[in-house]
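Lecture notes, continued. The same structure-token format from the folding unit now serves as the input rather than the output. Read the line below as a description of shape only.
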């Protein structure tokens, strides 16, 4: 590694730390200053949530640009314009890094999200997820009902079907929640595929373990997939969900399709 490469790597460690520090400070400001003001001025919960989600989108966009211009990362969106007209749509994405949600939500003025119940007790995050009307992953029936209500009202819902960040070297396995939501709400699917080269902010690595070269995040927005054929061709909602899940497995992780076909030979 050259002297310049070493300096660049050390700087990216500093830049990454500064960016996440700003993220934490920004989250606290939104939680205790901005969002309480919106709560008092909004006419109803729906208006409050829409305002909060718009602020989140703009804040995430600023954060992404800060990471880019500070040289912590590079990123590129292909097909982001396709998201502008999506309504009553389930956005399905793979999850290779910590900031996938931030990158995708930075392009969506309205975006509901499923969050772990534990985040409702996190001092940095709980005010944001509550004000934004995000959906806690809790008792299955109530959870599915709330997701369906959001989608049927015209909202966009972002879901990472794997439920957690991808672990390098381990075959990705999807939970069936995303497929069940799609079938239950009869909502079409928008597929988003995220790649990170080299890997960065993974589940098994610390934030300061930056690679030798600047990470590149490539976010590809794919065509919308109609849910109706999966429902019509199935003899039950469970069967339809299984078929949707099989499709998502190959759409999000093409390497799984290759491995499966190779194993069957």
């Amino acid at each position: 590694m050259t002297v310049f490469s070493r300096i660049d790597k050390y700087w990216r460690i500093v830049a990454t730390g500064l960016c996440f520090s700003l993220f934490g400070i920004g989250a606290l400001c939104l939680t205790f200053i901005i969002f309480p003001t919106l709560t008092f001025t909004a006419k109803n919960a729906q208006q409050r949530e829409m305002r909060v989600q718009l602020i989140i989108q703009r804040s995430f966009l600023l954060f992404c640009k800060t990471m880019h211009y500070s040289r912590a990362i590079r990123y590129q969106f292909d097909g982001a314009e396709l998201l502008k007209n999506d309504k009553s749509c389930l956005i399905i994405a793979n999850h290779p890094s910590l900031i996938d949600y931030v990158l995708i939500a930075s392009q969506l003025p309205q975006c509901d999200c499923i969050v772990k119940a534990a985040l409702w007790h996190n001092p940095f995050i709980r005010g944001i997820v509550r004000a934004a009307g995000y959906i806690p992953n809790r008792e299955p029936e109530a959870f599915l009902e709330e997701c369906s209500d959001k989608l049927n009202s015209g909202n966009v819902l972002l879901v990472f079907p794997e439920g957690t960040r991808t672990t390098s070297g381990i075959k990705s396995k999807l939970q069936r929640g995303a497929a069940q939501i799609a079938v239950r709400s009869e909502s079409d699917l928008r597929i988003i595929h995220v790649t990170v080269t080299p890997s960065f902010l993974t589940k098994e690595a610390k934030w300061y373990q930056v690679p030798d070269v600047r990470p590149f995040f490539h976010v590809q927005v794919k065509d919308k997939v109609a849910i109706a054929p999966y429902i019509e061709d199935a003899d039950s909602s469970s069967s339809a969900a299984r078929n949707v899940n099989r499709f998502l497995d190959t759409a999000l992780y093409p390497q799984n399709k290759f491995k499966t076909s190779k194993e069957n030979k």
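Point for the exam: The CA atoms of residues 24 and 250 lie 35 Å apart.
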